Amino acid sequence: MTITTDFQVLNPPQRLLMGPGPINADPRVLRAMSAQLIGQYDPAMTGFMNETMARYREVFKTKNQWTMLIDGTSRAGIEAMLVSMLRPGDKVLVPIMGRFGHLLAEIAERAKAEVHTIEVPWGEVFKPEQIETAIKKIKPRVLAMVQGDTSTTMNQPLEHIGDICEANDVLFYCDATASVVGNHLPVDKWKIDAVSIGLQKCLGGPSGSAPITLSDKCADWIKQRKKVEAGIRTVDHVQGIEPFVRSNYFDLGMIMDYWGEERLNHHTEATSMLYCASECARIVIEEGVDQAVARHQLHGGAMLAGVQALGLKVFGDISNKMNNVVAVYIPDEVDGDTVRNQMLLDFGIEIGTSFGPLHGQVWRIGTMGYNARKDAVLQTLSCLDMCLHANGYKGPKGEAALAALAYYK
Protein backbone atom coordinates (compact mmCIF):
# COMPACT_ATOMS: atom_id res chain seq x y z
CA MET A 1 0.00 0.00 0.00
CA THR A 2 1.32 3.40 -0.96
CA ILE A 3 0.97 6.22 1.56
CA THR A 4 1.20 9.71 0.17
CA THR A 5 2.16 12.68 2.30
CA ASP A 6 1.30 16.28 1.51
CA PHE A 7 4.30 18.51 2.24
CA GLN A 8 2.60 21.81 1.49
CA VAL A 9 3.29 24.61 3.93
CA LEU A 10 0.40 25.35 6.29
CA ASN A 11 -1.42 28.36 4.87
CA PRO A 12 -4.86 28.97 6.43
CA PRO A 13 -7.28 31.18 4.49
CA GLN A 14 -7.68 34.79 5.53
CA ARG A 15 -10.76 35.19 7.72
CA LEU A 16 -12.35 37.95 9.79
CA LEU A 17 -13.75 36.04 12.78
CA MET A 18 -16.85 37.89 13.99
CA GLY A 19 -18.55 35.06 15.80
CA PRO A 20 -18.76 34.30 19.54
CA GLY A 21 -15.11 33.22 19.64
CA PRO A 22 -12.43 32.41 18.85
CA ILE A 23 -11.51 35.68 17.19
CA ASN A 24 -8.48 36.86 15.22
CA ALA A 25 -5.45 37.06 17.49
CA ASP A 26 -3.78 40.43 17.92
CA PRO A 27 -0.64 40.49 15.71
CA ARG A 28 1.41 41.49 18.76
CA VAL A 29 0.30 38.29 20.48
CA LEU A 30 1.30 36.17 17.48
CA ARG A 31 4.72 37.84 17.44
CA ALA A 32 5.18 37.11 21.15
CA MET A 33 4.34 33.44 20.57
CA SER A 34 7.11 33.15 17.96
CA ALA A 35 9.83 33.96 20.51
CA GLN A 36 12.41 31.22 21.18
CA LEU A 37 11.90 28.76 24.05
CA ILE A 38 13.97 28.84 27.23
CA GLY A 39 14.35 26.33 30.08
CA GLN A 40 11.55 26.16 32.61
CA TYR A 41 13.84 27.03 35.54
CA ASP A 42 15.88 29.65 33.72
CA PRO A 43 15.72 32.84 35.86
CA ALA A 44 14.37 34.63 32.80
CA MET A 45 11.55 32.08 32.57
CA THR A 46 10.58 32.25 36.23
CA GLY A 47 10.79 36.02 35.93
CA PHE A 48 8.32 35.90 33.03
CA MET A 49 6.02 33.71 35.16
CA ASN A 50 6.09 36.23 38.02
CA GLU A 51 5.49 39.07 35.58
CA THR A 52 2.51 37.23 34.08
CA MET A 53 1.02 36.71 37.53
CA ALA A 54 1.33 40.44 38.24
CA ARG A 55 -0.24 41.36 34.91
CA TYR A 56 -3.28 39.16 35.46
CA ARG A 57 -3.79 40.64 38.92
CA GLU A 58 -4.38 43.91 37.07
CA VAL A 59 -6.68 42.27 34.54
CA PHE A 60 -8.73 40.66 37.32
CA LYS A 61 -8.50 43.75 39.55
CA THR A 62 -7.30 41.62 42.45
CA LYS A 63 -4.50 41.39 44.97
CA ASN A 64 -4.72 37.58 45.06
CA GLN A 65 -1.28 35.98 45.31
CA TRP A 66 -2.44 32.88 43.44
CA THR A 67 -3.12 34.40 40.05
CA MET A 68 -1.55 32.14 37.43
CA LEU A 69 -2.07 30.06 34.29
CA ILE A 70 -3.46 26.58 33.71
CA ASP A 71 -2.00 24.96 30.61
CA GLY A 72 -4.96 24.09 28.42
CA THR A 73 -8.07 25.69 27.00
CA SER A 74 -10.54 27.64 29.13
CA ARG A 75 -12.26 24.35 29.91
CA ALA A 76 -9.03 23.15 31.54
CA GLY A 77 -9.26 26.14 33.86
CA ILE A 78 -12.88 25.30 34.71
CA GLU A 79 -12.04 21.66 35.41
CA ALA A 80 -8.99 22.55 37.51
CA MET A 81 -11.13 24.83 39.63
CA LEU A 82 -13.99 22.43 40.19
CA VAL A 83 -11.99 19.24 40.82
CA SER A 84 -9.74 21.13 43.25
CA MET A 85 -12.50 23.00 45.09
CA LEU A 86 -15.00 20.15 45.36
CA ARG A 87 -14.62 16.96 47.37
CA PRO A 88 -16.77 13.94 46.54
CA GLY A 89 -20.10 14.53 48.20
CA ASP A 90 -19.71 18.30 48.56
CA LYS A 91 -22.78 20.27 47.63
CA VAL A 92 -22.41 22.67 44.71
CA LEU A 93 -25.08 25.04 43.44
CA VAL A 94 -24.99 25.78 39.70
CA PRO A 95 -27.38 28.45 38.38
CA ILE A 96 -27.93 27.65 34.69
CA MET A 97 -28.81 30.35 32.14
CA GLY A 98 -27.31 28.68 29.05
CA ARG A 99 -25.06 25.95 27.73
CA PHE A 100 -22.07 26.72 29.90
CA GLY A 101 -23.97 26.44 33.16
CA HIS A 102 -24.75 22.90 32.06
CA LEU A 103 -21.01 22.42 31.50
CA LEU A 104 -20.19 23.47 35.07
CA ALA A 105 -22.80 21.02 36.37
CA GLU A 106 -21.38 18.25 34.14
CA ILE A 107 -17.82 18.74 35.40
CA ALA A 108 -18.95 18.98 39.04
CA GLU A 109 -20.92 15.76 38.63
CA ARG A 110 -17.84 14.00 37.26
CA ALA A 111 -15.96 15.27 40.35
CA LYS A 112 -18.53 13.29 42.38
CA ALA A 113 -20.01 16.41 43.94
CA GLU A 114 -23.66 16.60 44.95
CA VAL A 115 -24.88 18.90 42.20
CA HIS A 116 -27.89 21.17 42.63
CA THR A 117 -29.12 23.37 39.79
CA ILE A 118 -31.58 26.19 39.30
CA GLU A 119 -32.48 27.47 35.85
CA VAL A 120 -33.91 30.46 34.04
CA PRO A 121 -35.01 30.41 30.39
CA TRP A 122 -32.25 31.05 27.85
CA GLY A 123 -32.12 34.78 27.26
CA GLU A 124 -32.67 35.71 30.91
CA VAL A 125 -30.43 36.14 33.97
CA PHE A 126 -30.83 35.46 37.68
CA LYS A 127 -31.87 38.00 40.29
CA PRO A 128 -29.73 38.05 43.46
CA GLU A 129 -32.69 36.95 45.59
CA GLN A 130 -33.08 33.81 43.48
CA ILE A 131 -29.47 32.88 44.23
CA GLU A 132 -29.82 33.75 47.91
CA THR A 133 -32.97 31.67 48.32
CA ALA A 134 -31.31 28.64 46.71
CA ILE A 135 -28.15 29.01 48.82
CA LYS A 136 -30.13 29.16 52.06
CA LYS A 137 -32.14 26.09 51.04
CA ILE A 138 -29.27 23.93 49.72
CA LYS A 139 -26.36 25.17 51.89
CA PRO A 140 -23.67 24.38 49.27
CA ARG A 141 -19.91 24.40 49.77
CA VAL A 142 -19.47 26.10 46.37
CA LEU A 143 -21.55 28.37 44.14
CA ALA A 144 -20.42 27.92 40.51
CA MET A 145 -21.68 30.49 38.00
CA VAL A 146 -20.98 31.70 34.48
CA GLN A 147 -20.73 35.47 34.06
CA GLY A 148 -21.05 35.77 30.28
CA ASP A 149 -22.63 32.85 28.42
CA THR A 150 -22.05 33.09 24.67
CA SER A 151 -24.76 30.51 23.98
CA THR A 152 -27.33 33.13 25.01
CA THR A 153 -25.15 36.31 24.92
CA MET A 154 -26.34 37.13 28.45
CA ASN A 155 -24.15 38.81 31.08
CA GLN A 156 -25.11 37.67 34.58
CA PRO A 157 -24.93 40.53 37.13
CA LEU A 158 -22.55 39.47 39.91
CA GLU A 159 -22.02 42.55 42.07
CA HIS A 160 -24.28 41.32 44.91
CA ILE A 161 -23.55 37.59 44.72
CA GLY A 162 -20.24 37.71 46.61
CA ASP A 163 -21.89 39.31 49.65
CA ILE A 164 -24.52 36.57 49.65
CA CYS A 165 -21.84 33.87 49.51
CA GLU A 166 -19.75 35.50 52.23
CA ALA A 167 -22.76 35.75 54.55
CA ASN A 168 -23.50 32.03 54.05
CA ASP A 169 -19.90 30.70 54.12
CA VAL A 170 -20.00 29.60 50.49
CA LEU A 171 -17.02 29.66 48.11
CA PHE A 172 -17.90 31.63 44.96
CA TYR A 173 -16.43 30.40 41.65
CA CYS A 174 -17.06 32.18 38.34
CA ASP A 175 -16.27 31.20 34.75
CA ALA A 176 -15.68 34.53 32.98
CA THR A 177 -14.13 33.19 29.77
CA ALA A 178 -16.47 35.04 27.42
CA SER A 179 -16.92 38.23 29.43
CA VAL A 180 -13.59 39.28 30.96
CA VAL A 181 -12.18 42.58 29.62
CA GLY A 182 -15.31 43.09 27.52
CA ASN A 183 -17.46 43.56 30.61
CA HIS A 184 -16.64 44.73 34.13
CA LEU A 185 -15.25 42.08 36.51
CA PRO A 186 -13.63 43.62 39.63
CA VAL A 187 -12.83 40.36 41.42
CA ASP A 188 -11.91 41.72 44.84
CA LYS A 189 -14.67 44.33 44.94
CA TRP A 190 -17.30 41.72 44.08
CA LYS A 191 -15.80 39.17 46.55
CA ILE A 192 -15.36 36.37 44.02
CA ASP A 193 -13.21 33.56 45.46
CA ALA A 194 -12.16 31.91 42.22
CA VAL A 195 -12.27 32.94 38.56
CA SER A 196 -11.08 31.17 35.42
CA ILE A 197 -10.94 32.59 31.91
CA GLY A 198 -9.55 31.94 28.42
CA LEU A 199 -7.68 34.05 25.89
CA GLN A 200 -9.77 33.52 22.75
CA LYS A 201 -12.49 36.09 23.37
CA CYS A 202 -11.95 39.70 24.50
CA LEU A 203 -8.28 39.17 25.45
CA GLY A 204 -7.38 38.84 21.77
CA GLY A 205 -5.38 35.61 21.85
CA PRO A 206 -5.77 31.99 20.79
CA SER A 207 -7.28 29.26 22.90
CA GLY A 208 -4.74 27.23 24.88
CA SER A 209 -4.08 28.94 28.21
CA ALA A 210 -6.49 29.54 31.09
CA PRO A 211 -5.61 32.34 33.53
CA ILE A 212 -7.11 31.85 36.99
CA THR A 213 -7.17 33.67 40.31
CA LEU A 214 -7.85 32.31 43.81
CA SER A 215 -8.67 34.15 47.02
CA ASP A 216 -6.61 33.24 50.09
CA LYS A 217 -9.68 31.53 51.54
CA CYS A 218 -10.11 29.38 48.44
CA ALA A 219 -6.39 28.63 48.14
CA ASP A 220 -6.20 27.52 51.78
CA TRP A 221 -9.19 25.22 51.26
CA ILE A 222 -7.57 23.62 48.19
CA LYS A 223 -4.16 23.19 49.87
CA GLN A 224 -5.73 21.01 52.55
CA ARG A 225 -6.19 18.30 49.90
CA LYS A 226 -2.89 18.65 48.03
CA LYS A 227 -1.00 15.41 47.34
CA VAL A 228 2.58 15.74 46.10
CA GLU A 229 3.47 12.80 43.89
CA ALA A 230 6.26 10.34 44.61
CA GLY A 231 9.47 11.19 42.79
CA ILE A 232 9.25 14.91 43.54
CA ARG A 233 8.03 14.62 47.15
CA THR A 234 10.57 15.49 49.85
CA VAL A 235 10.59 15.02 53.62
CA ASP A 236 9.53 18.65 53.91
CA HIS A 237 6.27 18.06 52.06
CA VAL A 238 3.21 17.48 54.23
CA GLN A 239 0.52 15.53 52.44
CA GLY A 240 -3.01 16.86 52.57
CA ILE A 241 -5.99 15.07 53.97
CA GLU A 242 -8.26 12.65 52.15
CA PRO A 243 -10.07 12.88 49.88
CA PHE A 244 -7.19 14.17 47.77
CA VAL A 245 -7.79 16.10 44.57
CA ARG A 246 -8.67 13.36 42.12
CA SER A 247 -6.70 14.82 39.22
CA ASN A 248 -2.92 15.04 39.21
CA TYR A 249 -2.68 17.46 36.30
CA PHE A 250 -5.38 19.76 37.67
CA ASP A 251 -4.35 19.61 41.34
CA LEU A 252 -4.20 23.33 42.05
CA GLY A 253 -2.29 22.68 45.27
CA MET A 254 0.67 21.33 43.29
CA ILE A 255 0.23 23.95 40.58
CA MET A 256 0.50 26.68 43.23
CA ASP A 257 3.81 25.16 44.32
CA TYR A 258 4.99 25.20 40.68
CA TRP A 259 4.16 28.89 40.33
CA GLY A 260 5.36 29.70 43.85
CA GLU A 261 8.84 30.02 45.33
CA GLU A 262 9.34 26.25 45.56
CA ARG A 263 8.99 25.76 41.77
CA LEU A 264 7.77 22.19 42.29
CA ASN A 265 8.42 20.15 39.13
CA HIS A 266 4.74 19.43 38.52
CA HIS A 267 4.74 19.93 34.73
CA THR A 268 6.68 21.74 32.03
CA GLU A 269 5.11 25.12 31.41
CA ALA A 270 3.78 25.69 27.89
CA THR A 271 6.33 28.40 27.18
CA SER A 272 4.86 29.81 23.98
CA MET A 273 1.43 30.04 25.61
CA LEU A 274 3.00 31.80 28.60
CA TYR A 275 4.43 34.40 26.22
CA CYS A 276 1.02 34.60 24.56
CA ALA A 277 -1.01 35.01 27.76
CA SER A 278 1.42 37.54 29.14
CA GLU A 279 1.25 39.64 25.98
CA CYS A 280 -2.57 39.50 25.99
CA ALA A 281 -2.54 40.94 29.50
CA ARG A 282 0.12 43.53 28.65
CA ILE A 283 -1.95 44.85 25.76
CA VAL A 284 -5.01 45.20 27.98
CA ILE A 285 -3.06 46.95 30.73
CA GLU A 286 -1.49 49.30 28.18
CA GLU A 287 -4.99 50.26 27.00
CA GLY A 288 -6.47 50.20 30.50
CA VAL A 289 -8.93 47.57 31.73
CA ASP A 290 -11.82 50.04 32.01
CA GLN A 291 -10.94 51.49 28.60
CA ALA A 292 -10.98 47.99 27.08
CA VAL A 293 -14.46 47.42 28.51
CA ALA A 294 -15.57 50.79 27.10
CA ARG A 295 -14.17 49.87 23.67
CA HIS A 296 -16.18 46.65 23.64
CA GLN A 297 -19.26 48.57 24.74
CA LEU A 298 -18.77 51.10 21.92
CA HIS A 299 -18.29 48.62 19.09
CA GLY A 300 -20.85 46.18 20.48
CA GLY A 301 -23.34 49.04 20.59
CA ALA A 302 -22.61 49.91 16.97
CA MET A 303 -23.12 46.27 15.95
CA LEU A 304 -26.42 46.19 17.82
CA ALA A 305 -27.59 49.39 16.12
CA GLY A 306 -26.64 47.93 12.73
CA VAL A 307 -28.49 44.63 13.06
CA GLN A 308 -31.55 46.42 14.40
CA ALA A 309 -31.48 48.79 11.41
CA LEU A 310 -31.53 45.69 9.19
CA GLY A 311 -34.83 44.76 10.80
CA LEU A 312 -33.39 41.75 12.62
CA LYS A 313 -34.94 40.82 15.97
CA VAL A 314 -32.43 40.60 18.82
CA PHE A 315 -32.60 37.54 21.07
CA GLY A 316 -32.89 37.80 24.84
CA ASP A 317 -32.94 40.56 27.41
CA ILE A 318 -30.95 43.35 25.76
CA SER A 319 -30.50 45.14 29.10
CA ASN A 320 -28.40 42.18 30.30
CA LYS A 321 -26.60 41.41 27.03
CA MET A 322 -22.82 41.15 26.99
CA ASN A 323 -21.08 44.11 25.34
CA ASN A 324 -19.14 41.82 23.03
CA VAL A 325 -21.70 39.56 21.34
CA VAL A 326 -25.27 39.82 20.04
CA ALA A 327 -27.69 37.11 18.92
CA VAL A 328 -30.27 37.80 16.22
CA TYR A 329 -33.12 35.65 14.98
CA ILE A 330 -32.64 34.28 11.47
CA PRO A 331 -35.37 35.69 9.18
CA ASP A 332 -37.93 33.11 8.10
CA GLU A 333 -37.40 33.77 4.38
CA VAL A 334 -33.68 32.87 4.33
CA ASP A 335 -31.68 29.76 5.08
CA GLY A 336 -29.30 30.58 7.91
CA ASP A 337 -26.50 28.26 6.83
CA THR A 338 -26.60 29.52 3.24
CA VAL A 339 -26.17 33.12 4.37
CA ARG A 340 -23.34 32.23 6.77
CA ASN A 341 -21.56 30.16 4.13
CA GLN A 342 -21.73 32.97 1.58
CA MET A 343 -20.34 35.44 4.11
CA LEU A 344 -17.49 33.03 4.86
CA LEU A 345 -16.62 31.77 1.38
CA ASP A 346 -17.28 34.91 -0.71
CA PHE A 347 -16.27 37.59 1.80
CA GLY A 348 -14.05 35.77 4.31
CA ILE A 349 -16.18 36.84 7.28
CA GLU A 350 -17.38 34.34 9.88
CA ILE A 351 -20.38 34.79 12.16
CA GLY A 352 -21.61 32.14 14.58
CA THR A 353 -24.38 29.61 14.45
CA SER A 354 -26.06 28.33 17.62
CA PHE A 355 -26.76 25.15 19.54
CA GLY A 356 -29.15 23.65 22.08
CA PRO A 357 -32.68 25.09 22.03
CA LEU A 358 -31.48 27.95 19.79
CA HIS A 359 -30.01 25.71 17.09
CA GLY A 360 -31.07 26.97 13.67
CA GLN A 361 -32.90 29.93 15.17
CA VAL A 362 -30.25 32.60 15.77
CA TRP A 363 -26.90 33.87 14.54
CA ARG A 364 -24.36 35.08 17.09
CA ILE A 365 -22.18 38.01 16.06
CA GLY A 366 -19.18 39.02 18.14
CA THR A 367 -17.13 42.20 18.53
CA MET A 368 -14.28 40.90 20.66
CA GLY A 369 -10.66 41.61 21.42
CA TYR A 370 -8.64 42.63 18.37
CA ASN A 371 -11.85 42.61 16.29
CA ALA A 372 -13.66 45.10 18.52
CA ARG A 373 -12.92 47.94 16.14
CA LYS A 374 -14.84 50.18 13.74
CA ASP A 375 -13.67 48.75 10.41
CA ALA A 376 -14.49 45.17 11.45
CA VAL A 377 -17.99 46.18 12.55
CA LEU A 378 -18.71 48.06 9.32
CA GLN A 379 -17.36 45.29 7.10
CA THR A 380 -19.43 42.67 8.89
CA LEU A 381 -22.65 44.67 8.75
CA SER A 382 -22.19 45.52 5.07
CA CYS A 383 -21.50 41.88 4.26
CA LEU A 384 -24.48 40.61 6.29
CA ASP A 385 -26.74 43.17 4.59
CA MET A 386 -25.58 42.09 1.12
CA CYS A 387 -25.78 38.34 1.77
CA LEU A 388 -29.23 38.58 3.34
CA HIS A 389 -30.65 40.36 0.30
CA ALA A 390 -28.82 38.07 -2.11
CA ASN A 391 -30.76 35.21 -0.54
CA GLY A 392 -34.27 36.63 -0.59
CA TYR A 393 -34.48 38.79 2.53
CA LYS A 394 -37.35 41.29 2.34
CA GLY A 395 -36.30 43.64 5.15
CA PRO A 396 -34.52 47.03 5.09
CA LYS A 397 -31.62 47.30 2.68
CA GLY A 398 -28.47 49.41 2.94
CA GLU A 399 -29.25 50.65 6.45
CA ALA A 400 -26.96 48.56 8.65
CA ALA A 401 -23.60 50.26 8.12
CA LEU A 402 -25.25 53.69 8.05
CA ALA A 403 -26.85 53.03 11.44
CA ALA A 404 -23.50 51.95 12.87
CA LEU A 405 -21.80 55.06 11.50
CA ALA A 406 -24.53 57.21 13.05
CA TYR A 407 -23.99 55.39 16.37
CA TYR A 408 -20.27 56.16 16.27
CA LYS A 409 -20.99 59.88 15.83
CATH topology of the largest domain: Aspartate Aminotransferase, domain 2
Tell me the name of the CATH class of the largest domain.
Alpha Beta
Q: Could you say which overall geometry the principal axes of the C-alpha atoms support?
A: globular
| Uncertain residue ranges | none
Distance between the termini: 65 Å
Beta content: 5-15%
Estimated radius of gyration: 22 Å
Helicity range: 25-40%
Number of distinct beta strands? 13
The CATH homologous superfamily of the largest domain is named: Type I PLP-dependent aspartate aminotransferase-like (Major domain)
Kindly report the spatial arrangement of strands forming the biggest sheet.
Answer: 2-10-9-8-5-3-4
- Major sheet attributes: 7 strands, mixed
Number of domains: 2
Assembly classification: single chain
Query: Which structural class fits the helix and strand makeup?
Result: alpha/beta
Mean of residue pLDDT values: 96
CATH architecture of the largest domain: 3-Layer(aba) Sandwich
